[in-house]
Task: structure prediction
Amino acid sequence: MLEKICKNCNNTFSLPRAGKKEQARLFCGPICSRRWTANNRSETWKQKASLAKQGEKNPMFGVSQNNPNSLANLTRSAWTGKHQSVESNEKRSNSMKGKSSWTEESKKKYIQTGIEQGRFWKPDDPEYVEFKKYRRKVYYWTSKNNLNVLENSDKRGRGRYHLDHKYSIAEGFRNRVPPKIIGSIDNLEFLLYTDNIKKGTSCSITLEKLYGLQPSRN
Result:
């Protein structure tokens, strides 16, 4: 056991061993290390950092970072005279809200339609609890696959390509298909996000075809 005093906070801290690495340690943790470094940078280092960004045009050039009023030197002239109209701001705000801007009546109608079409479960439906357990198991088996072998896997991302289950999880639950089969690599594909949203809980292959694909991996 090695007892040392932190160079930044002056608090005593203990180390389980007393090797060379522990002997050279100066701080009790990364926070104190960063704080001490930030407060003890040389003026030469500060000027080099400024030059690396904007040079002498940087409003922080040559200003000590320890100065509590240094932020007051920043100029905010970039947006001077550039104001958006009220109508433009409201239009942009509403376009970003999506379903959150719906009225309560619209939300209830959307949910009720989904329940009638079989896309949603009622919140108090005991079957919904079992579906969530089933879905977690499908996700587990899905994560076991090497998704890099699928086409468009390198384009995966929000607003790009989404991972899709050809035979949907919802239909797999209704037809009591084992989660391992729904989460198998043969049932996975990457779809353009707009196509995946349109697909919803529908299936792009039949259950018979899905079962027929399973032996191909053995």
